[in-house]
Amino acid sequence: QVQLVESGGGLVQAGGSLRLSCAASGRTFRAYAMGWFRQAPGKEREFVAAISWASAGAFYLDSVKGRFTISRVKDKNTLYLQMNSLRPEDTAVYYCAASQRIGVLARTPTSNDFGSWGQGTQVTVSS
Q1: How far apart are CA 112 and CA 64, in angstroms?
Q2: Tens of pLDDT along the chain (127 residues)?
Q3: For residues 45 and 116, what is the distance between their CA atoms, to the nearest angstrom?
């Protein structure tokens, strides 16, 4: 079983930056892809970014392209999300997720493609 633990959330002013981390552990950690999702109050969980664990090919929600960068360090089993130029509409709980589904990155991933989830970390951007 894979355990995912996020950290790095907090309160920041619009235009500021935060870096989220997600540490993966478990007896055998294998993932085809990992990703970040977010859920704002009263809204559905939405895809933010995903990365191929092997190749580091990355995919983004259109509204975060050029502002957010997803990356991973394989030998530390750690996923990151660098968030710059934050906007109030980025306010949400951010979740780290892992997928063992081959081909999940052939199209925009959905939450159903990911079988392991972290507990979430709050990101609040003030205007």
Answers
A1: 21
A2: 789 999 999 999 999 999 999 999 886 667 889 999 999 999 999 999 999 988 888 999 999 999 999 999 989 999 999 999 999 999 999 999 999 888 888 889 999 999 999 999 999 999 9
A3: 15
CB burial of 13-23 (b: ≥16 within 10 Å; e: otherwise) equals eeeeebebbbe
How does strand 92-99 pair with strand 121-126?
Answer: antiparallel
Q: What is the DSSP string of 87-123?
A: -GGG-EEEEEEEE--TTGGGS---GGG--EE---EEE
Spell out the residues 6+ positions from residue 20 whose beta carbon is closer than 8 angstroms to its own.
Answer: 6, 7, 8, 9, 36, 80, 81, 83, 94, 96, 121, 123
Cβ proximity of 47 and 108 under 8 Å:
yes
Q: Which tens digits make up the pLDDT trace of 42-69?
A: 999 999 999 998 888 899 999 999 999 9
What residue type is assigned to position 36 of the chain?
W
Single-letter amino acid, residue 92: A
